[in-house]
Amino acid sequence: MYKLFLAGGIASGKSTVARTMQRLGAWRYDLDRVSREVLAAGSPVVARVAEAFGADLLDPQTGELNRHLLAERAFQSEETTRLLERIETPAIREALVRTLAGDECTDGVSRVCVVEVPLLDRVTDLVPLVDEVVCVVAPLELRRERAIGRGMDASDFEARRAKQPTDEFLLAHADTVFHNAGTEGELVSQVEAWWAGHEARGWEARER
Predict the structure, then answer these.
(1) How would you write the pLDDT of the chain (208 residues) with one tens digit per residue?
(2) d(CA 104, CA 142)
(3) Is-contact 17 179, C-beta < 8 A?
(4) How far apart are the first and last CA of the chain?
(5) Does residue 131 contact residue 2 with C-beta atoms inside 8 Å?
(6) What are the residues facing 137 on neighbouring strands?
(7) Other Cβ atoms closer than 10 A to 63
(8) Which residues contact 77 (CB under 8 A, 6 or more apart)?
(9) Over the chain, what HEC string results?
(10) Quick one: how far is CA 94 from the chain centroid?
(11) Residues 6 or more apart from 126 whose CB is under 8 A from it?
(12) Cα separation of 82 and 26, whole Å?
């Protein structure tokens, strides 16, 4: 199976690229979804989160985590953000490695597994496990405009952007780059052309 990391900053168009790949036949694996699973009720990670950020985060009957309250506490400073990352990142990485190294990275039909990576700088040591790193970039002002147009507060956008790798970092680590300064249709066309090229080559593994 051909495996790739897909990275891009907030409002860059990463989700559009992922959906397009999925429509074309890829099996989509989202690390944000893995993060939610890692923080499921009753998990060891949730217990450590509650110990670090407060037992009142957990519903006393269901054990469900109050994610909104956790976000308020975890993202109030760089120190608390790093604390949450230290608690949950090992479990997320373990799930990712298990998936990439085993049979989980397939639905039994797809030949391509696309892993959406929110923070590429956190998994650069895992790049040898995939065949390609694909990144989506867009001008910062356009990304800000798109995010605000979707209802995001400008300060929230800036806070999220500041915690993500820069476009310069993404460009330096990418095998393929999609530039999303135009319409969604133009971005989709780039992805379709990329896909068609791989189809023609039979999804040969790249030499890294």
Answers:
(1) 899 999 999 999 999 999 999 999 999 988 777 888 888 899 999 999 999 999 999 999 999 999 889 988 988 888 998 899 899 989 988 888 888 876 556 556 688 999 999 889 989 999 998 999 999 999 999 999 999 999 999 998 998 898 899 999 999 999 999 999 999 999 999 999 999 999 999 998 766 5
(2) 36
(3) no
(4) 16
(5) yes
(6) 179
(7) 14
(8) none
(9) CEEEEEEECCCCCHHHHHHHHHHHCCEEEEHHHHHHHHCCCCCHHHHHHHHHHCHHHECCCCCCECHHHHHHHHCCCHHHHHHHHHHHHHHHHHHHHHHHHCCCCCCCCCCEEEEEECCHHHCHHHHHHCCEEEEEECCHHHHHHHHHHCCCCHHHHHHHHHCCCCHHHHHHHCCEEEECCCCHHHHHHHHHHHHHHHHHHCCCCCCC
(10) 15
(11) 93, 96, 97, 100
(12) 33
Q: Tokens 């559009």 sit at which residue?
A: 16
Q: Look at the block and give the residue holding tokens 């397009």.
A: 20
Q: Residue 66 has which token pair?
A: 């109050």
Tokens 């790193």 sit on residue: 133
**The two structure tokens encoding residue 30:** 């989202």
